[in-house]
Every structure is written in C-alpha cells, then in structure tokens.
Design a protein that fits this description.
alpha/beta; TIM Barrel; 290 residues; eight-stranded parallel barrel
C-alpha cells in the first residue's frame, strides 16, 4: 500500500482562541507549529497567511511565512483560502522562493458556519464560476504549482471533470474530499459517505480526506483510521477540529499528527516523507530557500 501522506491544517492567527492552545496565535507560532508537525510525521502543512485590515490577502507576507518555514523544515507547503477570488490569490503563485508547492481551490461554493469566541456564530460564503476555475487551473499550470482541489459534495466532481476535459489539470490529480462542515456544503461524516465519494473519484487521482465540525474529534479519528485502511491519505489539524477528545483541547498540531502516525504504524501503513509525497503527487522539484 502507498505510504500515508499526513496533511496538517495548522489554523491561523485570525482564528486564534485562548481556550484552544493548539491554534497558532502569531505568525511565529504558526512557523513553529509547521516545523513541529513535520517532526511529528506530517509531509504537508496548510495555512492561511496574513491579510490587511480590509481582509485582503497580502501576498508578500504569505511568501515570508513560507520562507521562514522552509529555512527550518523540508515540509511541503499548501496555501489555503480555497474559496477566495482568483484576482486576490493569483499573485500568491508568483512569489519565487515563497510560492507554495500546492494551492487549495474549492470546486464548489463555500457555505459554512463558524464560531468565534468574540464574534459568535457567523457565516462564510464564497463561490467560483467555472470560468474562474479555469483561471485557477491555467494559473497553476503556468506557475508550476500543483492545485489541490477541494470537493465538498458530488457537484465538485462534475466541475472537476469539466476541467479535465479541457486538459487543464495534470495527472496525478490531487483531490481532497471534506465531510462534516456545518452549513450548505455539509456532507455526512460517515463511513458510508466516504465510500460513496471516494469510489466516485476519477482514475489517476490521489485523494485525502478531511473530517471537520460535526464529526467531533473521536468521530474524526475513527473516519481517518478507516481512510488509512482504505488506502487514502488524511488531513487533520486545528483548522479542522482543535480538540484531542470530546471537550479536551489539543495541545498542539503535532499531538494530533502523532496520534495518526501511531495508528497508521500499528496497522502496518508506512508514513510518507516530503520526498515520498513528491513522488506520489508528481512533484519533480523541491523549492527550498538555501
């Protein structure tokens, strides 16, 4: 069986919560969290970088965070904010030594509910037209960054097939299927739903599963164990569920990674290094700051 890629979604300072110590509260803490997640067994880390006061992306600041991580670790970098407009994100692909290895892009709308200790409950809405998805696909091809396509429900597969028919996506495809996020893109966090969605993926796909929100930390662990047995790859971290057990906050992203490493190792699945992940995902060059 293919080695297991562990993909750590680190969280970010804008979502920091004093009651959740594993969530990075500063950019320096995010860098430390990335380094520790790699040491624990993750081969890819995912984060959302700095924004200005109006909520707009600051590309150079994202690049500096990436360079700071690469000075200390060989972990692969995935830029998040998959539902944000192409016009805001396209410059993230032009950062030289600070550009990512992967670029998350949502294949469907973002429609989910979040909670913040000061702001309370609030909704997040984004959407990409198919024309914008084409721009994303072309931009990634032109800049040598592999898109990491998020599939929140089955409609995402229709959009993905639309892109592949235009030869806009290189094989192997890197697909992520998400479950349990509250809101209009919710999908049941069940084993049956994992089987249904992953069995529908196109040939030449490498997939990871992210289990969030309504699954809870124990449900997430059970589902990711199932994915490990099934042969897929896994995403977890404080951006998805910042608890180690029900009512027990995680101490760090590394702690969450360590549990998955332990489970995979005990059932005979080897853990992928960043070099292994490059081979599995078809990356041919390593971009590290010397």
């Amino acid at each position: 069986m293919e080695k297991l890629i562990i993909f750590a979604a680190l969280g970010y300072p804008g979502a920091a919560n004093p009651a959740l110590p594993a969530m990075p509260a500063t950019w320096a803490e995010l860098v430390e969290s990335a380094v520790a997640a790699r040491q624990a067994g993750a081969s890819i880390v995912h984060f959302h970088g700095p924004h200005d006061e109006d909520g707009k992306i600051i590309p150079d600041a994202w690049g500096r965070v990436t360079e700071d991580i690469r000075k200390r670790s060989d972990v692969l970098i995935d830029f998040g904010q998959a539902g944000a407009p192409w016009e805001q994100r396209k410059h993230l692909l032009e950062l030289g030594t600070g550009k990512p290895d992967f670029f998350a892009v949502s294949l469907t709308n973002h429609d989910y509910r979040r909670h913040h200790p000061q702001r309370g409950d609030y909704d997040v809405y984004y959407s990409h037209t198919r024309n914008e998805l084409e721009e994303y696909a072309r931009g990634c091809l032109e800049n040598g960054v592999k898109p990491h396509w998020e599939i929140w429900h089955q409609g995402g597969l229709w959009n993905f097939e639309y892109l592949t028919k235009q030869n806009l996506v290189a094989k192997p495809y890197w697909l992520e299927v998400l479950f349990g996020t509250p809101g209009g893109t919710w999908a049941p966090p069940t084993l049956e739903e994992i089987n249904h969605r992953t069995n529908s993926l196109p040939a030449d796909s490498v997939y990871s599963v992210a289990v969030r929100g309504t699954a809870g930390p124990i449900g997430q662990t059970r589902m990711l164990t199932f994915v490990i047995i099934k042969g897929g790859h896994v995403r977890l971290g404080t951006q998805d569920i910042p608890y180690y057990a029900d009512g027990v906050p995680a101490k760090s992203n590394a702690q969450l990674v360590e549990r998955i490493v332990r489970i995979a190792t005990e059932i005979g699945r080897a853990i992928a290094s960043p070099d292994d992940a490059r081979k599995i995902l078809g990356l041919h060059q390593q971009r590290r700051q010397s």
